[in-house]
Amino acid sequence: QVQLVESGGGLVPAGGSLRLSCAASGRTFSIDNMGWFRQAPGAEREFVATISWSGSTIYYADAVKGRFTISRDYAKNTVSLQMNSLKPEDTAVYYCAAVMGVYTNYRLKIAHTYKYWGQGTQVTVSS
């Protein structure tokens, strides 16, 4: 089992920044990839970014490319999402997720691929 706990959400004006963190515990040695997804009210959960547990492979959604940065802290077993130049359309609940196994970049952008999920953290960007 893997447990994931997100933190760092909040309210920020458009153009501002936030940093989300996801702390992983349990059988973390079995994790191959971790991702961030988000879900706005009335919308489906959508892919934001993913990083391999080694940190060597990273993918971003087009909507956040150039504004968001995903990273790993090996000592703390955490994955962070630095979000800059935030827009009102970034408002959503952000979820951290983890998966074991090797997947294509296509599969890593799909929520159903991931087995473990955090509880989510709210990000609200005011206009």
Which ranges are low-confidence, i.e. pLDDT below 50, for 5 or more consecutive residues?
none
Q: Characterize the main sheet.
A: 7 strands, mixed
User: How would you describe the oligomerization state of the chains in this entry?
Assistant: single chain
Order of helices and strands: EEEEEEEEEHEE
Q: What's the average pLDDT?
A: 96
- Percent helix, as a range, is under 10%
The N- to C-terminal Cα distance equals: 40 Å
Which percent band covers the strand fraction?
A: over 45%
Query: What gyration radius follows from the Cα positions, in whole Å?
Result: 13 Å
Number of helices: 1
Overall geometric form: globular
Q: How many β-strand stretches?
A: 11
Secondary-structure-based class equals mainly beta
Can you give keywords for this protein?
127 residues, mainly beta, seven-stranded mixed β-sheet, four-stranded antiparallel β-sheet, 1 helix, 11 strands, 3% helix
